[in-house]
Fold this protein.
Amino acid sequence: MGGTIAGLAANPDQSPSNYKAGELELETLLKKVEGAIPGELKLVSQQLANIDSRDLSEDLLTLLGNTVKASLSQPDVQGIVITHGTDTVEETGFFLSATCGKLAEKLGKRVVVTGAMLPANAPQADGPLNLLDALKWVANPPESCPGGVFAVFAGKVCLARDLSKRHTSAFNAPLMDAPCSPLGLINPSWLSRLKAVEAASGEDLPIPTQQWPWVEILTSHAGARAQALKSLLDLGVEGLILAGTGFGGVHLAWMGALNQAEVKGTALVRASRTGAGVIQGNFVGDGLNCVSSGSLSAPRARIALQLALNAAKADKSLTWQDFFARIAVLPEFG
Ligand code: ASP
């Protein structure tokens, strides 16, 4: 998909963080690790995009999801590694988990997302090791870990649904806050959480085939005004993720517009801007009728809501809330 792992700095020794993402082809990245790839793996590569992931589009997510599904279904494919920019790997990880996770699990195959924080020509480039680690994770014997969608960065593995980039420059930025395990020494409590999450999660949701539902994220803050919210409602936004303060509370100034949104049938999800912790139910007691994002960050809750709205359009027997609960509200484990 591109990203910093495929990026090049103009002056890598002096300023490695001044670079352009998505410059090298995947074939070139693979050549850099060729000698160290586990011998039994035969690699087939596909370049779907070569972008800075801050520019990720919904069309590209659809293309990626369909490609992953089609590839997983081929009997001779053991697993899939996706190289991706870290800026929006959180969205892609969640999207793939929600649309391809059950398929991967049923087939006992692993899909692994990885990337890098330094460009490919930086002296301390982390991409080659991350790529190798991801390939090794795919090649692990099936009895060591079930199939599913994972992310590998800085020597650790987590469920791709748990990703959230929490630092601008740390090597482990994308999984810094996620329940994870060192790759070489799988932590039994991480493995049991993985199995419990897989057991609790429902069927894969369909990948949107046409335009994705329009959902925006709004952050509540001191001095919030209702104008931005009102404009979005007037323009026909289908859903809003309210990244509230603390337990997901929103500014009083928004309440009138939000009550109108409820009447209009706009889908509302309450998340927290704090970056950690869980919200379930209406702890803030503002009477707003919205679904809580559980432990999902606002960007992941946004993908979840888009997929849920899309699924409810295709299957009228269930509501978007039913589909949202299927992928987003899973039990938490310590
Ligand atoms: N801007 C880059 C991207 O997301 C950052 C990275 O890959 O680390 O493509």
